[in-house]
Give the backbone structure.
Amino acid sequence: MFYEQPLQKWLIGAQILVGSIKMEARLWIKLVLAVAVISMSGCEKKDATVKKPEAKEIKQMSANKESFGKTPDGKQVDLYTLTNSSGIRARITSFGAILVSLEVPDRDGKLADITLGFDKLAGYLGVHPYFGAIVGRYANRIGKAAFKLDGVEYKLAANDSENHLHGGIKGFDKVVWRLEDLDDKGAGAMVKLSYISEDGEEGYPGNLACSVTYTLTEDDKLQISYEAETDKKTVLNLTNHSYYNLAGQGTGDILGHELMLNADKYTVVDEGLIPTGENRSVKGTPMDFTTPMAIGSRIGQVEGGYDHNYVLNSGGGMLALAAKVYEPTSGRIMEIHTDQPGVQFYTGNFLDGSVTGKAGKVYQKNYGFCLETQHFPDSPNKPDFPTVVLQPGQKYTTMTVHKFSTK
Ligand code: BGC
């Protein structure tokens, strides 16, 4: 008993010890497992970030081509679709290098097409107010449809009463552009289109080789860049004439959009919308968008609505903020940067319900706005305006960037 007791105690003690060791071992195992799980979950997280580029590789950034039909004279017309991994989708056609649609997410990620236009080529072949088109050789107006270079007068089509508008009867918006490049391997999904405008076309001098490149980047920018060269002194002013409604095309007017224009002045125009030569301050007038204002807040005080060239504060020559537009119901924001000295702010004043566009939507007055980055109207006849003359040997390059976001 004497021995038994301590022995029993020892055995019991040993059992307890083994038991607690087992317990501890279990605890340790649990602890080790927990640490492993935590660190593995950490690894998983790490893997996820490491994997992201991989996921990006299988993402939707793409550039595709399909047929959009044929012109009445039998020319093949393509439709190019550029997408990025946020789901933004831009469709461009080789007819007029037109931006056919631009689908952009709202604050809940829901996509809507924010440009006016047509579903089919037939719409663009008919009469329309330059929906989405690349406009040239001279975007906007040239007074009395004529200008002089080195003493020689060049006569152009008077297609806007006595003035010349947007390149003439058959401007760059009505010709089939050639595909130069379609690619999704570089900085974005891109399509490059080119056009050769012959000497004398629409009255303009010089054979002009020009190109436009649309690039949709991964950081939600749609860049439009232009290049051109001539073999004879000429004038050039290219722009894109998209009509935007950030709430979605055809959903209503754009009067509730808030606009900021980085411009303290605008070019004063006569009744034919030809600049008088005066650049007037916007301060204290309904023309002032230097701080964000609803487009409709003072439009009633502007005869006919906005259709004015704003003199950008940057002066042009380098990429700078020109405009920012916010649409409160969708939360969509579009910011425009350009290296051009001006921007035509046009509120679709001539839309009157006579055009039925995409998805059967009828476009009424003010259903879209344009922000056409450009040189000032009638510059060929205004020696004090920034020059639009292109000389042989000179390379014309310009860029406008549309950046999309939400709030
Ligand atoms: C002009 C408007 C014109 C519209 C459609 C704009 O660039 O400034 O006056 O009505 O284009 O042609």
Notes: The longest helix spans residues 4-57. The two ends are 85 Å apart (CA to CA).
